[in-house]
Amino acid sequence: MQGRKRIVGWGVLALWVVVLALAAPLAGRLGDVQRDRAVDYLPASADSTQVATVMEQMPGGGSTDLVLVYHRDGGLTAADRATAAREVRQVAAGHPLAAPPRAVPSEDGTTLLYAVSSTEPGTDEAARDAFVHDVRATVSGEVGGPGALATDAGEVYNSLDGPLLYTTVAVVAVLLIVIYRSPFLWLVPLAVAGVADFLSMAVTYALHQGFDISVSGQSTGVMTILVFGAGTDYALLLVSRYREELRRVPRPYDAMAAALRGCGPAVLASSGTVALGMLCLLAADMNSSRGMGPTAAVGVLCALVAMMTLLPALLVVLGRRVFWPLIPAYGSEPKAARRSLFAAMGSSAGRRPLAVLLAGAAALAALALGALNLPGALKQEDTFSSTPEAVAAMKTLAAAYPETGTQPVTVVAPTGRVPEALRTALATDGVAAAERGRSGGGWTEISVVAAHPPQSAAETATIEALRSALGDGVYVGGPSAEQLDMADTSARDRNIVVPLVIVVVLMVLVVLLRSLVAPLILIAAVVAVWGASLGIGGLVFEGLFGFGGTDPGLALLSFVFLVALGVDYGIFLMHRMREECLGGAEPGAAALTALRTTGGVIASAGLVLAATFAVLVNMPMVQLAELGFVIAVGVLLDTFLVRTYLVTSASVLLGRKVWWPGPLAGKPVPAAGQEPEREPVRV
Predict the structure, then answer these.
(1) SS3 for 547?
(2) Which of 98, 155, 315, 672 has the fewest CB atoms inside 10 Å of its own CB, making it the most exposed?
(3) Element (H or E) spanning 409, and its range?
(4) If we measure between CA atoms, which residue out of 171, 166, 197 comes closest to residue 186?
(5) pLDDT tens-digit readout, 397-438
(6) Residues 274, 565 contacting (CB under 8 angstroms)
(7) CA atoms of 99 and 92, how far apart (whole Å)
(8) Is the pLDDT score of 10 beyond 60?
(9) Residue 200 to residue 197: CA distance in whole angstroms
(10) DSSP assignment, residue 427?
(11) For residue 43, which phi and psi values (nearest 5 degrees)?
């Protein structure tokens, strides 16, 4: 019998080998479909997205717009101007340009600006990058503009994959070594997480091919973090229960079966809740947010499948020796532990629950006020924590042309309406110039120069005035309009996705916990954590990290992640509380028991998850750094404050009402000597 059971373990491993062999060709192609163009992040229905789409369909495809900047602090010399003119002629001779570039000098004589636009690269990102690099090799000045910024952003995203993966693996490895205190055990869940990450890449590629989901550098980076963070969490819970069962059961296979029966259903429920929360992002209009939903859900589900099948098989095949030197022998008792930190925390919450609840709620509310100090919308030049050449050129232009638009606003109009559109644009307040450009497919582009600096309040007002004056059927886009549309759409998405996430997660919790009050407590707790985490971000983003703005999608994405992941941990705690109540314990005592028995392993899981998201803080993209910081802080708040003190104290205060309107709300305590009713599943 035992031999057959070992064969089952080897059979699971063989099946995974087949799965990985089938996944390998798909996983290797994910980078080929990853796109970080403007249209991959823009709102699907926005004017600026329509402009980008129309421009790609024009003869030559989308144009690559550059700005060549020649600058000398003491003023450009005649030799500087001659060099600039010669180099610009070389660029024009080597590439087909939409129009001959003309010099635009600054009033103080320190800077020359040349606008360069070419349709040669079309929509091909590699051709665009080659064009930008060739221009940079030709000219001695700085090369900026939307095309150069897109190239620099693409290179940054492409450079993330290796460092992000290596850093995440290193962080998780160190934490697992500390937690397990074993030179071998940590390798097993880490290797399984790597397999899950590989599988998630293949599944994401298949989803892109089948359903055309958007795949960006941001979404794949977050997917990797989720696979290692959530997957390691599930491994910690399973291994902890497996170690416990090995002391009671002689055979590893039987011990693993008992461990899976014990924690498997709760892990399935929590991971399913996270996946459903992520899929709510499909209701967003922002392409980047909508694409992140399924990729994040894929990461969580692949981590779940690997940790509930491959990890058990490996542990069973390796046997007890994988725990060396702390091998759990059959029939042994764990070393008597000192009173745990979580037992002490729970006792303090149980003694004065009202005071603890009010103090914790007041602290979270005070921290949430910091959100009022969040810096304004993130500008294009502030999206990098470093300063690539395109950003340096934009800063040079902003200083040299403080009252002039240096970044054209692109208008596309039906060709028959172009004369009217030109007149309307020139008559709009804030427009300095407008000229006709390419035509094709029934559309014509019009390049509009605003009289104000890019992404200033005055330029934003000009874009809004243009849209109002030009009316339906004429679209206003370009980099500044894209930033405006992203901010507006992010606000719209928050109003739709946030309530949807709350409703979906609440419904799942009601079904799982068979209560209405307990789910409401968990939802209120994670929403409070989200507000406090954003508030802490508002206190440190500008002053400590030097971030020049806040990504418009930060509030929405951080909300979805913190609610889904926070409820994930809440399920483990409440599930154990419910089991204790079914056994006859009062909710207050049940809450303390659940905290004492699950607190350590869930705290370890919270530390791992927070550490993996904290890896994003060191990435060179401000959007990722802000998202990683807020989620990491939120997970820590949930682990050591909200779940430990606030949920526990609220449960003690409410008593059996915490399970209303379910049967546990009025369940009597078993009489002395009576065997308490127990659920077969516990965490």
Answers:
(1) coil
(2) 672
(3) strand 409-414
(4) 171
(5) 888 887 665 677 889 999 999 999 999 999 999 998 888 888
(6) yes
(7) 9
(8) yes
(9) 5
(10) T
(11) -60, 140
